[in-house]
Write a structure and sequence with these properties.
By secondary structure, the protein is α/β, with parallel strands linked by helices. The protein folds into two domains: 6-121 and 309-397, 2-Layer Sandwich (Nucleotidyltransferase, domain 5), CATH 3.30.420; 133-302, ATPase, nucleotide binding domain (Nucleotidyltransferase, domain 5), CATH 3.30.420. Helices cover 40% and strands 16% of the residues. It contains 13 helices and eleven strands. It has helices at 36-40, 47-69, 88-105, 114-120, 123-126, 166-176, 183-191, 218-233, 240-265, 281-294, 303-306, 311-322, 383-397; strands spanning 6-11, 16-23, 26-34, 78-84, 109-113, 133-138, 143-150, 154-160, 270-274, 297-299, 344-345. The strands form two sheets. It has a six-stranded mixed β-sheet with strand order 3-2-1-4-5-11, with helices on both faces. A hairpin with a 4-residue loop joins strand 6 and strand 7 (143-150). The longest helix has 26 residues, at 240-265. The radius of gyration is 21 Å and the shape is globular. The structure holds adenosine-5'-diphosphate and magnesium ion. Adenosine-5'-diphosphate binds next to helix 6 and helix 7.
């Protein structure tokens, strides 16, 4: 429909420079430039290298997306950008570019949360998200179960990993097996030739008294490393396919079991899976099997929309515009540890609407007024948010492995 919002989205939280353009729920362009090859020899993403690559790729990728979509920047109804979480320097490049375009074009700016975008992207594939949406978000930096009554403003964490993220475990195990970088796709590939029941690796946090919705993958990672080491010590060959398949099975068994439990407990009949690990073929097939058995409808975007991209940011931006959510002010900060509960970031000069109903949007782009759901300090909010933030910042502050390119 022509009256649906036309939004450009910019994603630079890690090593993918993504620019997407959507009209409502329709994907018009998905341009990506990845610096993954530049990081490969370090075995993980080097923040400074990523930032510089974003800087070089930013404008050409925006131009490529506009061309692909066949639209003019003047026709846009808004510019959305990942404001966090992610690598600080990398985020800054995207946020600065988004501000420049929003200011120059006189368009409203929407600083949004990377994690909510990973969920919202499914609207481009399967139409409007049900409300509430139950989402399993699994990537290199996160493993969370989220209940989202409103993807533009109300996302509630039910559980998360207490140590490594699922993608991180894939990447580390791949390293132990000498499968190179990035690890997830390589394990997925090798596992297809292996026996998932060959080795009984542990299922973390699945005991009767363990947290119902939390995950733990660090023990599994260590168990795999020990098993491989002991084989090598004995001078025996390491059956890579069997190790990959058995490890992968342990991860996806727990992820799907807990996700379905969360749906059942909360009376939700849909499950959405997003994030880079949602590209995993075994996760997709086991989730489908178990959802079918439980009478739950599964929604997983195609693999190219699961890994980081700009279309997901545009999708969330378009939903914000469609729902009349307030835009961000032009002093929007990049927040490397933005908690998942902060779906959008209002900007520094944003003021809480007064009881009389006034709101101030000083510094805002034309058409981008501030006001609404977020308090001025909330982006740096509560303790829980802080914990979550911490683990993410930790993940990204260290050199870590990253994903496939989907260009
Ligand atoms: P980020 O964590 O920065 O948000 P992504 O959402 O793109 O990045 O997720 C990247 C992670 O997804 C990496 O850990 C990568 O190994 C993992 N991944 C990508 N494809 C697969 C796959 N087929 N199987 C398992 N993991 C995968
Ligand atoms: Mg991601």
């Amino acid at each position: 429909m022509a009256d649906e919002p036309l939004v450009l989205g910019i994603e630079t939280s890690c090593d993918e420079t993504g620019v997407g353009i959507v009209r409502g729920h329709t994907l018009l362009a998905d341009a990506i430039a990845s610096s993954v090859d530049e990081h490969a020899r370090y075995g993980g993403v080097v923040p400074e290298v990523a930032s510089r690559a974003h800087l070089e790729a930013m404008v050409p990728t925006i131009q490529r997306a506009l061309k692909q979509a066949g639209v003019s920047a003047r026709d846009l109804d808004g510019i959305a950008v990942t404001a966090g979480p992610g690598l600080a320097g990398a985020l800054l490049v995207g946020v600065s570019a988004a501000k420049a375009y929003a200011y120059a074009l006189g368009k409203p700016l929407y600083g949004v949360n990377h994690l909510a975008s990973h969920i919202c992207v499914d609207q481009l594939e399967h139409g409007a998200l049900p409300e509430p949406t139950m989402a399993l978000l699994v990537s290199g930096g996160h493993s969370s179960l989220l209940l989202a009554p409103d993807i533009t403003g109300d996302v509630r964490p039910l559980g998360a990993t207490i140590d490594d993220a699922a993608g991180e475990a894939f990447d580390k195990v791949a390293r132990v097996l000498g499968l190179g970088f990035p690890g997830g796709p390589a394990i997925d590939r090798h596992a297809r030739e292996g026996d998932p029941a060959a080795i009984a690796f542990p299922r973390g946090l699945t005991g009767g008294r363990d947290a119902r919705y939390d995950f733990s993958f660090s023990g599994l990672k260590t168990a795999v490393a020990r098993w491989v080491e002991s084989r090598r010590r004995e001078g025996r060959e390491v059956p890579i396919a069997d190790v990959a398949a058995s490890f992968q099975e342990a991860v996806v068994d727990v992820l799907t079991r807990k996700a379905i439990r969360a749906c059942r407990d909360n009376g939700v009949d849909h499950l959405m899976i997003g994030g880079g690990v949602a590209a995993n073929s075994r996760l997709r097939s086991l989730a489908q099997e178990r959802c079918d058995d439980a009478g739950i409808l599964l929604r997983v975007p195609r693999p190219g929309l699961c890994t980081d991209n700009g279309a997901m940011v545009a999708a969330l931006g378009a939903e914000m515009v469609a729902r009349g959510r307030p835009a961000s002010t032009l002093d929007l900060p990049a927040d490397s540890s933005l908690p998942v509960t902060e779906v959008s970031v209002p900007g520094h000069t944003h003021e809480e609407p007064s009881p009389k109903g006034g709101s101030a949007g000083g510094g805002s782009a034309r058409g981008g007024q501030a006001g609404g759901a977020h308090g001025p300090d909330s982006a740096h909010g509560n303790d829980h948010a802080h914990d979550h933030a911490h683990s993410h910042a930790h993940d990204h502050d260290h050199i870590r492995r990253q994903t496939t390119s989907i260009s």
